Q: What sequence folds into this?
């Protein structure tokens, strides 16, 4: 029981450290936001945080550190199974889950940026048809769609307002992850400037091509939804088996964590589970790239 108590204390200390760090960052933002404001002007003083504020604060911490939620589950399993092995597995799972969550977040940001580039092309074409000059249309559309990062937006807007090389600025902005469509926009801009071709017509064709690519990606993802569901079911099946065994009184955690045969089965099963999930996910991702 000493090992389990130490495990609980370590997990609690880790969660407390994360919460203190988030609280310190929020306090610093509040202090910096108040610098330069007139004395006595601002939000009224508060006597203390409300329960709603505390709930929102902890929810924000949980969302920012979702990978750390593996630790409470590992502590519970460690206490139920009376073994430190689940806690060790939870500590190993934290960086792995965090890496996966960061990859999902990066993919969502990439797709959102790609959608913003499509909207940018349509907005520029619409402004051109409304009678605006290309530079004015670009400035308005960039501000309306937010398709560029802060640094890239500054460079593109400066080139558009002061007669710089807009096409080159757009090509540099296309290096952002998910902003490949900006290279096509730069090509349309270059052709319109050098050859006098209609920029609105070229942007219409570019927007249609980017929309078709996005729709194709969505159709492929819809077709692969069943495959991803199969992968999820395969991942959950061992947990369901353990729950059924516990419900029948077989004490599967005791067998897996406290007997030599159980430890061997646990090691082999975990390796096979990881290999199967990796292989199935590799097959599905290969289908997404086709």
A:
């Amino acid at each position: 029981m000493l090992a389990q108590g130490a495990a609980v204390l370590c997990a609690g200390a880790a969660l407390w450290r994360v919460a203190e760090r988030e609280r310190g960052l929020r306090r610093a933002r509040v202090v910096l936001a108040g610098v330069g404001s007139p004395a006595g002007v601002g939000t009224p003083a508060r006597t203390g945080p409300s329960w709603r504020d505390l709930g929102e604060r902890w929810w924000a911490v949980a969302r920012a550190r979702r990978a750390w939620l593996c630790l409470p589950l590992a502590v519970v399993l460690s206490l139920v199974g009376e073994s430190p092995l689940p806690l060790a597995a939870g500590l190993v799972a934290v960086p792995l889950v965090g890496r996966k969550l960061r990859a999902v977040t990066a993919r969502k940001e990439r797709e959102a940026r790609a959608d913003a580039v499509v909207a940018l092309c349509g907005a520029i074409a619409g402004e051109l048809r409304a009678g605006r000059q290309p530079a004015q249309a670009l400035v308005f559309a960039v501000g309306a769609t937010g398709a560029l990062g802060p640094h890239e937006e500054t460079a593109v807007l400066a080139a558009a307002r002061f007669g710089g090389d807009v096409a080159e600025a757009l090509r540099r902005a296309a290096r952002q992850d998910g902003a490949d469509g900006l290279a096509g926009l730069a090509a349309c801009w270059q052709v319109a400037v050098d050859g006098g071709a209609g920029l609105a017509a070229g942007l219409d064709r570019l927007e249609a091509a980017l929309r078709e690519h996005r729709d194709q990606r969505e159709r492929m993802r819809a077709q692969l939804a069943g495959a991803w569901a199969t992968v999820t079911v395969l991942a959950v099946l061992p947990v369901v088996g353990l729950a059924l065994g516990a419900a029948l009184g077989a004490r599967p955690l005791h067998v897996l964590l406290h007997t030599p045969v159980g430890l061997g089965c646990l090691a082999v099963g975990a390796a096979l589970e990881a290999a199967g999930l990796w292989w199935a996910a590799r097959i599905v991702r290969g289908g997404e790239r086709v």
Observations:
- Confidence is low (pLDDT under 50) at residues 1-9, 28-46.
- Residues 240 and 279 are 21 Å apart (CA to CA).
